[in-house]
Amino acid sequence: MAAASLGRRAAAYTPAAAFVVPSFPSAVGRGFSLRPAAALRPGAFPAVSPMRVAALRRVAPHSLNMCGAAAPVQKSEEEIQAAREVKKAAKEAKKAAAKRKEDGSQKKEGASQGVAKKAKEESVYSQTVNLPQTTFDQRANSQVKEPELHKFWATEQIYEKLYTENTGTKFVLHDGPPYANGDLHIGHALNKILKDFINRYQIMKGRKVRFVPGWDCHGMPIELKVLQTMKGDEKKNMTPISLRKRAAEFAKATVDKQSDSFQRYGIWADWSEPYLTLDPKYEAAQIEAFGAMVKGGHIYRGRKPVNWSPSSRTALAEAELEYPEGHVSTSMYASFEVVEASAALKPYAEGLRVAVWTTTPWTMPANLAVAVNAKLEYSVVAYGAIKLVVAKDLVQTLASKLKKAEDETAPTLEILATFTGAEVEGTKYKHPFADRTSEVVLGGDYITTESGTGLVHTAPGHGAEDYLTGLKYGLPLLSPVDDAGRFTEEAGPELVGKDVLGDGNTACIEMMDKAGALLKVEPYPHKYPYDWRTKKPTIFRATDQWFASVENFREACLKAIDTVTWMPATGKNRITPMITGRSDWCISRQRSWGVPIPVFYHKETGEALLTEESINYVRDVVAECGTDGWWELPIEDLLPPSHKDQAHLWETGKDTMDVWFDSGSSWNGVAKKWGGGE
To answer: What is the DSSP string of 587-599?
Structure first.
């Protein structure tokens, strides 16, 4: 916009001296409006003198068309002078703004507490706006402040003083120990911080609070961490005691790291007096608790199928299993030739076979029976040149499974007769590739028509239900598999040494096919137990193990549940069925890093020495020397006085206790020491 137009508009509102001009004349054309100087921030633009305004007024009014381009006119000397004045004013305004900025940065001062006050120009508001003056930081600066706060708590012994000075009742929140096998994660933080909430709440109520932190220092998680740091030759030459030494060092170092992290979280606890399950006194208290269970008749040794991890080479408890998504087994439909039919089946005995289904073909060498449900109906169906016994409700399902790829439709399975499971019992069949004859027996309600054929291939050495059925009929406990999950000589020369979860499984299917017993093979996706540490599949395998039975005190546990106030109340509904359905607990582990089961075995007879005297004597030795003494001391120093003269006849057991027994007995080693809570 031309300066003349700008001047005329200014004169129309008020005397020229009362106005200011923007730094650039064209600003008005961009939507700026002229306002009285009083409405503008003082010093925003340089004031235009009366002489300059007069010069602007003399500019020709037609020099700018407000709605179009400027008309071409020859500029006079006055116009040129006016343009120079405007340009000069713009430069002066720019210099003034730069100077104000420079002066402002130079006048910044740092306050003594880190609060900076910016120098400002005097304005009409400086005496009317009151801003707070404080030494409190606007930012948390937690990396500096939190360590200072923690140091203050420690120096002033705040946690200890509150315990001493509070007059309320004692409150002990017993800490379930985390594994000392790595750095902390968000789960650790959640666990400890929630406990800290509870403890601080009780402190504010005036109660005497003790929180003793603890660590699980034994077991497979730590042993695996140690083994992962070793190379091939070092691992092969590792002895039980050298492994234990390395594991103890690793656990203690990890405890120190985790303790520092927990304290950095701001958790109040007795960090100088934690409980470690590898401490000799703690181990002795654990053996004492074990002895009390032996005395109460809750501990026994037996041979039964347990969850076994070939990758870890040890038995596992249910709590040590996980069931990942995506597992697919190779399932197999097979048939066994009947050599002696029951009375009801005799009219159909010629060419008769019993149809079974399994997701573990590798267990076929251990087959000792076929189980049926006494209440279900079973049909004899014609299938080509043979007859099959199958659950009536699964006839059509089996027909669809027997359909071959080249067939357009599934084969027709004509039902010839139907009987109850009880009428099928007693039928004898020949094993497809083992030289023996077995019977059809009655199983339990675990036999359904949801899948398979309704007849269950039974190997007592490789399944929980199979084992119970085998006990009922006095079947032997055949389990031709070693610690590494490979077939032993009992499985036969064609299978010995093969991996039951690999080439051994495939070989069993091939042998069934060769014997004419194979009906169908197909993949079967389902839940399958994996070792939670190695992340590899497990198997069911019969071995000699030590078990803790809950049968003798199950009712007492259920009654105790009613004496507890559960928060939330749904907790009671969860734990009740857990106790009701709890099976015996396999507490023995075939590992070196743990508290030993304090048992001695007679070298010739295999008889176990596990008495109150022997347990108490080992407890006292452990309290003094730690559990390393079980591997380091001569057996004469471990046997009780009554058996020292027979030391040459005995040897120590090699099994250790499940690590859950360690933490599960912490009440005896820790909580009892502090006198418990209310």
So the answer is: -EES-SSSPBP--
